[in-house]
Design goal:
The structure is a single chain. This protein is α/β, with parallel strands linked by helices. The chain has one domain: Rossmann fold (3-Layer(aba) Sandwich), CATH 3.40.50. The protein is 38% helix and 20% strand. It has a 7-stranded parallel beta sheet with strand order 3-2-1-4-5-6-11, sandwiched between helices. Helix 4 links the parallel strand 5 and strand 6. The longest helix has 22 residues.
Length: 291
């Protein structure tokens, strides 16, 4: 049973990873001092928690023999200064990666995005993720660095302002009209529990992954148009809302067809356990109970 350090352990993905991996690994979780622990309340006793803003990274490596790092903490740049985005998405993980290499860890897993730096809604976030990735590639000679480009994560306990939960709540209340883009852009939607299983699979198969820099797309085996996805939610929620596709323009530099090739994961033995419809039903049921 090796030790895994998860940054952003109280976040949507980080908490799902902790829940999945605490079955087979010792978990060290990094969080902010003011973080809400509701997502990990049931497994908190299985995690050694540290406040990232109160403990040095050096202390963690001195006190623990860490085998894997999974970096999920991020700043989306929607609030605060650009320097905060750089600190969270470039400087902090760079310090963590440097210490990981000097400490001889088995692998460093970075959680990345399919969004491009010129995408209209998340330029600072996407640019900072790209900048750290370039550094990670330069430093990956000393340790396997695995970059996960995640699709659109969804599931229970997601942030309420994210696309899927906010859309579900609007549909559940049968909001009279919902203005939408034409919806032809495709996305690879991935249930958060399935994503956590992908991370675990890669840890289990680490000896079959070559040293140096490696990149995987994390998603389901197929993409869906936004329009089809929303209509699916509309049916499952039995909503009476009128969906006004085409009422809104696409975002600047909209990504119409992101790379969704998961063949590398499939070569490692990846097979989904939960269908997209079942995952959506679980997510809708959670939102019903939360409203």
């Amino acid at each position: 049973m090796g030790t895994v350090l998860i940054t952003g352990v109280t976040g949507f993905l980080g908490s799902a990873l902790a829940r999945e991996l605490c079955k087979t690994h010792r978990i060290i979780g990094l969080k902010r001092h003011a973080s809400d622990l509701f997502r990990i309340a049931d497994i908190e006793h299985n995690i050694k928690l540290y406040d990232a803003d109160r403990v040095s990274l050096e202390t963690l490596f001195q006190e623990h023999s860490i085998e894997f790092i999974i970096h999920t903490a991020t700043d989306y740049g929607t609030h605060g200064a650009v320097t905060k985005v750089l600190d969270a998405n470039v400087l902090y993980p760079l310090s963590l990666l440097s210490l990981s290499i000097s400490s001889g860890i088995t692998a460093f897993i970075n959680t990345d995005t399919f969004y491009t730096p010129n995408y209209g809604a998340l330029q600072y976030y996407s640019l900072s993720k790209r900048q750290f990735l370039e550094w990670a590639k330069q430093l990956s000679d000393g340790v396997p660095v695995i970059n996960f480009k995640t699709g659109v994560l969804f599931g229970p306990m997601d942030n309420r302002d994210k696309f899927t939960p906010s859309m579900i709540r609007r549909l559940l209340t049968s909001e009279a009209e919902i203005d939408l883009t034409p919806g032809d852009q495709k996305r690879n939607f991935i249930y958060v529990e399935e994503a956590a299983r992908i991370y675990r699979l890669v840890l289990e198969q680490i000896n079959n992954i070559p040293p140096g820099f490696n990149e995987f797309n994390v998603g389901s085996s197929e993409t869906h148009a936004i329009r089809d996805y929303i209509e699916w939610l509309h049916r499952l929620t039995q909503s009476r809302s009128y969906l006004k596709f085409g009422a809104l323009p696409y975002r600047v530099n909209e990504i119409m067809a992101p790379d969704a090739d998961i063949s590398q994961l499939q070569l490692l033995g990846w097979k989904p356990k939960v269908t997209l419809e079942e995952a959506l039903i679980r997510t809708i049921d959670y939102e019903k109970k939360s409203t």
